[in-house]
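Ticket #4471: structure output looks truncated?

Reporter: J.K.
Steps to reproduce: submitted the chain below (305 residues) through the standard prediction queue, then opened the result file.
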Amino acid sequence: MYQIVAPQTEQEWEEYYEVRWQVLRAPLQQPRGSEKDEYEQHAWHRVVKDENGKVVGVARLHLVSSDEGQIRYMAVIEQHRRKGLATMMLESLEAIATQEGVERVILNARTSATNFYENLGYEVTGDAPEIFGSIPHVQMCKTLDKIEVIIRNPQWCIDLQNIWHQQIPITQLMGIKVYQYTGSTFETRAALNPNMNLHGTMFAGSIYSLATLTGWGLVHLMMREQDFEGDIMLADANIHYHKPVTELPRSVAHFDNIQGDFAPLTQKQKARITVKVEVLDDTLPVAEFVGQYVVLPKSESKKSK
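Returned output as attached by the reporter:
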């Protein structure tokens, strides 16, 4: 029985790069180290383990742009080939690309492998550089299906995304995006790689920022739902970290978990809103954030500037 996982332990990483080198570089008389490149720290890595826990297949995905991802270093040990392992790894990495909002995935395939990739939905788009000048390759591309999510008042969500990116530019570098808004639930997501520490997990500060913005965003959308205006500020917050984030950073807040109301704004007074936010690693809860936000009425917020 085979299992696909992200490499975690030092031994798994050693086996991961060893398979890369043995399958992809040693036959071409290339030195150790040639199986790595500058994107290693900013990519999603997958290994296939056999029933004994030995790494027998590897593959990697990194983002070329916000719209395009590239799969590289696909390799399976010879005695484990023709068992569907490459297909399993492709599907796993394509799922990650879809979650990251990528529209298409590209890869450079040996000309002898084009039929395999074409059967999985890839199309040849042109020639690719020959590996070390000896093995012909072609570039292939696959357009990914978009995840269907509920977006209530999509223009509000676009406006919110633009506010973050324009007023807090680092949110764009962190890959923080509005993912879903139903009118009762608000979810944001972040890219893991730009927020990854040296342990291969998400920075605690990035988790805190994601949760803070999710609470802020829910207050913003709730105000629009109730036709209120004001400037939102975080007054105080507490966060409890339970587990590290290693895969898919998600942050979810529900209207049911809001305390306070906006009525004071009608009297030109501050409104105080408390929001509970849950941070998950895919489906696993990893942190709980409680933020206390203050909303200043427009007239007051202008005077304070």
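Triage note (M.O.): checked the attachment and the full token line is present. Confidence is low (pLDDT under 50) at residues 301-305.
Status: closed, working as intended.
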